[in-house]
Amino acid sequence: xxxxxxxxxxxxxxxxxxxxxxxxxxxxxxxxxxxxxxxxxxxxxxxxxxxxxxxxxxxxxxxxxxxxxxxxxxxxxxxxxxxxxxxxxxxxxxxxxxxxxxxxxxxxxxxxxxxxxxxxxxxxxxxxxxxxxxxxxxxxxxxxxxxxxxxxxxxxxxxxxxxxxxxxxxxxxxxx
Length: 176
What we know:
The protein is mainly beta. Helices cover 15% and strands 43% of the residues. It folds into 2 domains: 34-66, no CATH class; 70-175, Lipocalin (Beta Barrel).
């Protein structure tokens, strides 16, 4: 009789253990939330936004994984056509945008800006916007400032050239 009780007790313990293991492994859900950024590698200082599972790029970079320097889409020789405010006669010329010479990936140099400035005009790129802070590229009495927007392989410009603060001339332009 003792061995029957021992066998019955062993069987009950084994069945109880089996049920406990089966219940805990099948019925329990993992409460750890999935990390949507687990397999996303953002480059050049970009960080993954877990709400959208996309890279948020540092200034000067773009692309799905922040792999592209934003200014590269601006770097080329451009056929320009600018208008002085109030005029209908275009000013055609060629300008060249090249990468800046510093480690700052947002900077570019513009050669022959407005078919007026011989020395390079420095501009900053942020996404699809190019900005010329007020400067005197030729060191003379003329200064320039303005912004342009790149869309469909064209830059649309609005800029101003000042002569020693006396003459203020506004321009618009399209570069292709």
